[in-house]
Amino acid sequence: MAIRQRRARVEQEAIQMSILVAYASKHGATAEIAERIAENLREAGQDADARPVQEAGDLGDYEGFVLGSAAYLGHWLKDAAAFVRSNQDLLAQRPVWLFSSGPLGTEATDAKGVDLHTAAEPKELPEFQEAIHPREHRVFFGVLDPDRLSFTERSFRRLPAARAILPEGDFRDWDEIQEWAYRIAKELTQADATHERDDSR
Description:
By secondary structure, the protein is of the alpha/beta class. It is 45% helix and 19% strand. The protein has one domain (16-195): Rossmann fold (3-Layer(aba) Sandwich). The strands form 2 sheets. Strands 1, 2, 3, 4, 5 and 6 form a 6-stranded mixed sheet that branches. The two termini are 16 Å apart. Mean pLDDT is 81; it is low at 1-14 and 193-201.
């Protein structure tokens, strides 16, 4: 009885973990996802910061990481991929979750029946899985705001075929993103409680 009460107390008093949500964003949509994830992690009791990968600073004090990037033509942005590669030794020793943003539209599959979540997985993912062993990788739908596009991107989108595959709109599912962030927070809390119980034996 006393042991069970002690375990329950440890779980309730689990130490807040420091989490970095680092991201690379081209037009701002991925940054907004990262900031929302950090906000949701804080709501769930974790200490979370959201920063661009170029401004991540010293990673040594962080106990976990959520890393995300916009995905274009099957690849993460170069800054995000470089961040993983240059810090892979540390990341491999911490709990890490990855996310990509990019697919557009309201359908889960394209005209050929291809799952857009699967199609949007970056080509770097197998490399990252081998190097840092992330807990999970998620693909979130993105945004196309014509006002945020470059001149070249706007010119390309004027083509009829491009308009069909690049619909305008915000297709992010904030409920899905929140649920994922809360699940990460729960996993971190459970892992921390397990660590506390092991140390108390």
